[in-house]
Structure formats: structure tokens, C-alpha cells
Amino acid sequence: MTALNTEQREELLHKLIDQARSQELPYDKRPKKRINWSEYDVAQCNEIADALDLIRDIVDTAASRIRARTASERPGPGRPPTDAANIAKALLLQSYLGVSNRVAEGFVRMLGPKLGIDENFSYKTIERGYDREPVNAILDEVLRISNAPIEGLEKTFSIDGSGTPTHMKQNYAYDRERQRRERKGDGKDAASGDDAFPKGHHDYVYEVSTVGVEHKLIAFYENTTDHSRSEMSFLRQATEETKALHPSIDMLCADGVFANRPACEILQALGITPRTLPKRNATLPRKGVFAWTQMLMAFLRDPQGWMRQYYLREASETVNSMIKRKNPGPLRKRLDDRKLTEDLLRAVNHNIRRLCYLYYLIDLQVLKRLRALAM
Fold first, then answer.
1. What number of CA atoms fall less than 13 Å from residue 298's CA on the CB side?
2. CB neighbour list of residue 165: distance below 8 Å, 6 or more residues apart
3. What is the pLDDT of residues 112-130, one digit of tens each?
4. For residues 2 and 9, what is the distance between their CA atoms, to the nearest angstrom?
């Protein structure tokens, strides 16, 4: 490396990138992670009961934290609204079971005591819960709290965008691939990815999330129905919020959408090392962003080690796939605000399920950490 001049280095860099994008670069795959299947079976048998207990405790913790930091308001005239925490529990139960509002009403009556719901309400109350800001505030807090049990245990995260369909005939991965084929037909670099979300006859709910590569918990989740936004536009918020929850983060892995100097500059300011495969015509000059040149030079020095880190980005794709397998149907809601809440519920329930399994697989003391937060 030291004997090469700048031109030779860039020539070698382009060759390696081309091999990596064409999947021709020799790569020794990481050994498969061993799973304790006996403990996994126990976790699977107890999942529903544990999930209900966790929904109850984590929502109560979120509601108490929100009350502690907000000024109490005097109740207005008329009948007081249904407690937002109870509605949040009902919505999480509905999403967990994948049922309609009317069926959810029956399940709330049956499982309400298990969830700590101390009042009865109709399916219309559940339906209106998708519009209530206090309920959404609790769900956002629940997502943050669900990361507390693994604080300090995750150092590498992955970021990726996806889309939840609103109709049965939609498939985000298929539309994304079609978009890239069209770009290739236009003579553009399809392998580098396109920053814009794919458009179709029916809109998706688009989301960008960060995921811990070790425990597969979602740290940041933001969704939108505005397909004019790009994945890159979420990066600063995503990394800042992930850093706030996991101060020990030192690396972020991503696909080609984030392979640019502005993305590296955002990560550099937060002390995060980027691992994202650049375009075939990438150049070494830093142009004020040292993290960009540092990333490319690391690739030149050790392509094998670099690729092992880069491929950790599969964690995001794995989590997106896990959520879609658990929720094979499209979103039921038709109003945009309700679509966003319904989509968020699926992400929150993913974290709840993962915590239930991690309790057995790695002896993660979930409830102990949550109760410590509530004190």
C-alpha cells in the first residue's frame, strides 16, 4: 500500500469495489452463530404469556416517565378520556394478535386483567386510539425503553429503509428491485442504490430504522407516507437518537444509499465509524471529511475484514423480514396518521418479542431493568 501512488490506489479501490458489487470478491463468511435450541423452545412456549406481562410493565413504565416530565393539566368539562396507557396496551395487543378492531375488543375484555387494563371500552375507542397523540407518545417512549436492557451491550448498528404495503399486491423488495433495474436501463449505477423511496400506484408507509446487529432490537424507527423524502434525510436524526440510547455505539453499517461524504460527515461528528460500500467511481480525496478517506483506506488495507464489518448491515434486512413474517397482511388503516401508528405498533411489538426471547437465550434481566427505570 505504501508503495502505491494516489492514482494506483484509486485504480485498486475501483477494482475492489467492482468485485464486491459484482459479488466476485473472495470473502470468508462469518461462522454461523450458535443458538441454544432448548432455551429457544422454552422461550417459544412462554412467548404469549411473557409478551402480555412485558406489554403491561413497559407501558406502565413509559406512562409514568411521561407523567413525571410533563406538567399536570386540569381536567376539562365532560367525561374524562379513556386512559392513554390502557389504549396503548390495547393497541399493542391488537397488533400482536393481528386482529381487527371488533375482535380486539373481545380480546381486551378477556385479557384486560392480565394487561392491567382496569376499564372496559368499545372497539370505537380502540379505533380512535390511533389518532390520539398521548397514545403515540407512550408508544415512542416504549420503543426507547425497550432498548434499556441492552444498554452497553451493542456497539455496532445497521441502518436501512423499508416500506409496509397498504394493499395485498404490494411488495417493497420487488418494487425496490424494479426501480434499480429501471435505473440500470437508464445507464445509471443500479448497484449503488437510489436515495428516493420507490413509487407505485399505491403508497407505502416508508420507514427508516437502526438495529443492533447483536440482539436485533430496533433503536430508532421513523416512518412517513411522504414518498418524496429520501432515506438519507433520516440519517442525522437516526444516528443522534441511536447515540442517545446507546452511547457506546462505534460503528454504523449501511447500504450504498449512504455511501457518500455528507453521510460520513454526520457520523464523524458523532464519533461513529461508517461501513457503507461506495459507488464504483468513488475517489479518495477527503474534501473535508476525514471519515470518508479513512473508510476507503481501511477497505484497501484489509478487504476481508472490512467486508465482514460491512455485511453486518444484514441485521436491518433481517429485522425487516422478521416484522413482515409476523405481519404478512397489509396495513388495515386508511387514514395516513392511523397508518403510521399501525406501522409503529409492529416495530414496537418486534422489540417486545425479542426481549421475551433474549430473557431465555442470554439470561437478559428484562423486567429487572424496566422496574429500575420506573423507580
1. 18
2. 171, 172, 202, 204, 330, 331
3. 999 999 888 999 999 999 9
4. 10
Residue ranges of domains in the chain: 37-71+82-148+336-374, 151-319
Q: How wide is the angle at C-alpha 223 spanned by C-alphas 335 and 369, nearest 5°?
A: 115
Q: What angle do CA 53, 369, 32 make, to 5 degrees?
A: 85
- Give pLDDT tens digits for 225-268: 988 889 999 999 999 999 999 999 999 999 989 999 999 999 99
Q: Which residue type occupies 354? A: R
Helix ranges, 130-234 (H): 133-145, 172-185
CATH architecture of 151-319: 2-Layer Sandwich (3.30)
Give the C-alpha separation, 79 to 333, whole Å: 27
Distance, in Å, from the CA atom of 86 to the CA atom of 118, rounded to the nearest integer, reads 8
pTM: 0.88
171-191 residue pLDDT tens: 666 676 777 777 666 655 544
